């Protein structure tokens, strides 16, 4: 299971093993879902409606956007910003899962609450994600800038991007969009962890005995379900975060349509509602849900997989 397990036969991995499992989980997952992330970011940053009826809209559907990006920018465009994204995923995965395991253990040892309860997983998952976000947010800003830029490129390399952004916008640029990120990530990650745990219990209750034997499939399906639920409920805040992160970067967005400036989170929400309507809060939701299902499913799948590998290694070593 994910989180502290007080049962005597529960996994007893070291903190280093937990961090490594989280890092590898993030690395593999990021490589697989990067194309969906690029499409999602392009949709979120487009001010025009995602519709064929709008002649100014550059993108209006997942398949159309995929074809257009492939034709205009080549296959590698789907992995734009992949290096900062991988740094983000490796660091984020390590800090998030390590924090979650430590927090749930702390709750078990220092309170009367059951570390496996929905509410405990929600709070610990949210706090773990906030800790990870504070650690890697500058890399997230870099990833968004790389994924958002068109042709010709504004930033050629990671080093060039860091230097240019620092000189032109100051050190605070690396924490743009932090407020909506923290506001969004707490309930999102909290729901990921708590829904994953609840769906696993539901799966065990609903499935016949034969179906319970395939634990890897269970982890993948429950993780995917948790990703869809959490992303749907918190999506508008993710859109605000992306819009704010590209502030000061408007010249590189000119090829994609309208460009707007926002004074902050509330101003961003107000402008989106006034100029794009309530549906504007959910631009890019379809590729985002697909990405959330795959990324969360793979995240928990690979994390549980590698934790089990380390557990088997530990047990074998202790028996020698």
Keywords:
Mitochondrial carrier fold; thiamine pyrophosphate transmembrane transporter activity; membrane; single chain; Mitochondrial_sb/sol_carrier; 69% helix; mainly alpha
What this model shows, in words?
The protein has helices spanning 15-45, 62-73, 82-110, 118-148, 158-169, 178-206, 215-245, 265-276, 285-319. The chain has 320 residues and is mainly alpha-helical. The chain has one domain (13-306): Mitochondrial carrier fold, CATH 1.50.40. The chain starts with 14 loop residues before the first helix and ends with a helix. The mean pLDDT is 84. Mitochondrial transporter mediating uptake of thiamine diphosphate into mitochondria. It is not clear if the antiporter activity is affected by the membrane potential or by the proton electrochemical gradient. Belongs to the mitochondrial carrier (TC 2.A.29) family. This is Mitochondrial thiamine pyrophosphate carrier. Solcar repeats lie at residues 13-106, 116-202, 214-309.
Query: Which class in CATH terms?
Result: Mainly Alpha
The assigned structural class equals mainly alpha
* H/E element sequence: HHHHHHHHH
End-to-end separation in angstroms reads 26 Å
Question: Unreliable stretches, pLDDT < 50, 5 or more residues?
Answer: none
Radius of gyration: 20 Å
Which architecture name does CATH use?
A: Alpha/alpha barrel
Number of strands: 0
Q: Any idea what the shape is?
A: globular
Q: Largest sheet at a glance? A: none
Taking all residues together, what is the mean pLDDT? 84
The CATH homologous superfamily corresponds to Mitochondrial carrier domain
Number of helices: 9
The number of domains: 1
């Amino acid at each position: 299971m994910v989180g502290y397990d007080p049962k005597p036969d529960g996994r007893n991995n070291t903190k280093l093993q937990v961090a490594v499992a989280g890092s590898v989980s993030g690395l593999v997952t990021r490589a697989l879902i990067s194309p969906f992330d690029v499409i999602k970011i392009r949709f979120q940053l487009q001010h025009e409606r995602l519709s064929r009826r709008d002649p100014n809209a550059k993108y209006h559907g997942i398949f159309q956007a995929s074809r257009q990006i492939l034709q205009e920018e080549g296959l590698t465009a789907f992995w734009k910003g992949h290096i900062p994204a991988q740094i983000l995923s490796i660091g984020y995965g390590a800090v998030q899962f390590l924090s979650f395991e430590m927090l749930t253990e702390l709750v078990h040892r220092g309170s009367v609450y059951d570390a496996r309860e929905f509410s405990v997983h929600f709070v610990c998952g949210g706090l773990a994600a906030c800790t990870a976000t504070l650690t890697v947010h500058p890399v997230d800003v870099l990833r968004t800038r790389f994924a958002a830029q068109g042709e010709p490129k504004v930033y050629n390399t990671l080093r060039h991007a860091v230097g240019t952004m620092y000189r032109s916008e100051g050190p605070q640029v690396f924490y743009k969009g932090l407020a909506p990120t923290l506001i969004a990530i707490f309930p999102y990650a909290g729901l990921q962890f708590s829904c994953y745990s609840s769906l696993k219990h539901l799966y065990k209750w609903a499935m016949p005995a034969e179906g319970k034997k395939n634990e890897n499939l269970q982890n993948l399906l429950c993780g995917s379900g948790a990703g869809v639920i959490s992303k749907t409920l918190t999506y508008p805040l993710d859109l605000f975060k992306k819009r704010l992160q590209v502030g000061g970067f408007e010249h590189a967005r000119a090829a994609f349509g309208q460009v707007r400036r926002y004074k902050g989170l509330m101003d961003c929400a107000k402008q989106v509602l006034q100029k794009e309507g309530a549906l504007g809060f959910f631009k890019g939701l379809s590729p985002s849900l697909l990405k959330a299902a795959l990324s969360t499913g793979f995240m928990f799948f690979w994390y549980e997989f590698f934790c089990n590998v380390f557990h088997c290694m530990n047990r074998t070593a202790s028996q020698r």
